[in-house]
Amino acid sequence: MNWKLAFTGVAAACLFVGAGMALSPVSVAQDAQADARTLKPAASFQSIASEQERSVALFQEAGKVIQHPRCVNCHPATDRPLQGASMRPHQPPVFRGDGGMGLPGMQCTTCHGAENIPVVGQADTIKSIPGNPAWHLAPIEMAWEGKTLGQICQQIKDPARNGEMTMDELVEHMAHDELVGWGWAPGAGREPVPGTQAEFGELIDAWVKTGAACPTS
Amino acid sequence: MVTFTLNGQERTFDGDPDTPLLWVIRDFEKLTGTKYGCGIAQCGACTVHLDGMPHRSCILPISVVEGSEVITIEGVSGKEAEAIKTAWAGLDVPQCGYCQSGQIMSAVALLQMVPKPTDADIDGAMTGNICRCATYHRIRAAIHNAANSMEG
Ligand code: FES
Ligand code: FES
After folding, report:
1. What is the annotated signal peptide range for this record (chain B) (predicted)?
2. Are B13 and B2 in contact (CB under 8 A)?
3. CB A194 within 8 A of CB A66
4. Which of ligand 2's atoms lies nearest the C-alpha of B94?
5. What confidence tier does A125 reach under pLDDT thresholds 50, 70, 90?
6. Residue B34 contacts residue B22 (beta carbons within 8 Å)
7. How many percent of chain A have pLDDT more than 70?
8. What was the pLDDT predicted at B29?
9. How would residue A6 be classed by pLDDT, with cut points 50, 70 and 90?
10. How many Å is the Cα radius of gyration of chain A?
11. Nearest ligand by distance to the CA of B97
12. What residues of chain A lie within 8 A of the CB of B106, using their CB?
C-alpha cells in the first residue's frame, strides 16, 4: 500500500470536510437572512397534509410580519409606543391619548406627517421620520408586545380584542389596510417587514380558510 | 411654488419643495425666533403652530405647508399667548433662552386645548420640549399661573 498516497487522500478528505463545514454555517446564515426578508407563498403550504398543521404553519409564516418591530412598536403593552429595531421606548416620551393619537399638545401629528420624511445632515442611523395619514397606536386590547405568537393568534381571533372584526374583515384589514401597509414601506433607514402585503394577506386568508388554528406557543 | 400664510400674511416659497419649514422661516423669512436644536423632532426648539396645532418645523417639508396657516413666536397672539407671556415674565422663566420660543409655542397650544391643565397634562404636552438649562420647574409654575390668570 502506498501510505503516502493514502495519507494525502485522508488529508484531502479532511480538507473537503473542513471546507464543507466552513461553508455550511455561512449558507445557513444566508438562507436565514433571505428567510427573514421574504414570505413563503400560501400555496407552498399545500404539501402539509393535515389541515390543522397547515393552518398553524401558515400563521407562523405570517408571524414573521406580525412579530416584526415595525408592527409591534405600535402595538405596545403600555401607553408608550416603542421605537426602532431594538424596540426601545419612544423618544420623545409620548403616550396613547384619545384614539391612540397622543396627548393634547403632543399628538402623533406634532411630528408624524402623512408620509415618511427624509432627514438630511444627520447621523447614519437616522435617515427619515416615519409617517402615514392614519398614524396612531393600536388600542391597548390589541397589545402584542411581550406576547407569544400563539397568544397573539388567539387575540386577533377574539372580537373583544381585535376591534370587533369578523374573520373576513380581519383578512381585509391585513391585506389592504393602509397603516398595516406602511410596514412594507417604512422609509429610509428602517427595515421593512418581510415579503409583500399581498403575500401576507394571502397567508392570513389561507390561515382563516384552514380553520384559523393557532400555534400552541 | 408653495403659498401659505405666515403670521397672518400670505407668503410664497419657490425653492426645493423638500426644504424644511424651519429653514424657510429662518433663512428666507428672516424670522429667527424659532430655533434649530436637533433637526429630527427630538427637542422641540423649532415648534410652530400649523393650522392651530403645534408642529416641529424642522421635519415639515414646505410642500406640506401649501395652503396652511403658520404661526411663529413672532406672531402668536390671543388670550392664551398673553397669559403665557405675562406668566413667563413674572417668573423669569428663561435661563439662556434657546429653547424658550419652542416651550412657549407648546405651552400656548396646551392652554388653547386644555385651559386648566393638571401637572399630568403639562407633562404630556411639554415632554417633547427639552431645556438644557433645566427651567422645567419654572415652566410648569408659569403654565399654572397663566391658566389661573385666564380664569378671572
Ligand atoms: S429642531 Fe425641531 S425638534 Fe429639535
Ligand atoms: S433656557 Fe436654556 S435651553 Fe432652555
Report:
1. none
2. yes
3. no
4. 1
5. confident
6. yes
7. 86
8. 98
9. very low
10. 23
11. 2
12. 105-106
Residue A172 domain flag = yes
In sequence order, what DSSP letters do the residues of A113-168 get, joined into one string?
-SS-EE--SS-TT--EE---TT--PPPGGG--TT--HHHHHHHHH-GGGTTS--HH
pTM of the model: 0.89
What pLDDT is recorded for position A124?
Answer: 86
Contact residues on chain B for A109, CB-CB shorter than 8 A: 53, 55
- Residues B86, B124: Cα–Cα separation, whole Å: 23
ipTM: 0.94
- The per-residue pLDDT for A4 is 47
Contact state of A97 with B124 under an 8 Å Cβ cutoff: yes
Where does CATH 3.10.20.30 sit in chain B?
A: 2-71
List every span in chain B annotated with CATH 1.10.150.120.
79-150
Residue ranges in chain B whose pLDDT is less than 70: 152
Q: Decide if pLDDT at A47 tops 70.
A: yes
Give CATH for domain B2-71.
3.10.20.30
pLDDT average, residue stretch A151-161: 97
Ligand closest to CA B92: 2
pLDDT at A35: 82
- Which has the closest alpha carbon to B24: B54, B44, B46, B43? B46
Report which ligand 1 atom has the smallest distance to the Cα of B39. Answer: 1
Count of structural domains within chain A: 1
Q: Indicate the CATH number of B79-150 among 3.40.190.10, 1.10.150.120, 3.30.420.40, 3.10.50.40.
A: 1.10.150.120
Residue B43: name the closest of B147, B126, B135, B112 by CA: B126
Q: Which of B53, B55, B59 sits opposite A119 (nearest CB)?
A: B59
Q: Cα–Cα distance between A120 and A125 in angstroms, integer?
A: 11
Percent over 90 (pLDDT), chain A? 80
Give the cell for residue A56. Answer: 398553524
Torsion of CA B19, B24, B26, B31, to 10 degrees: -160
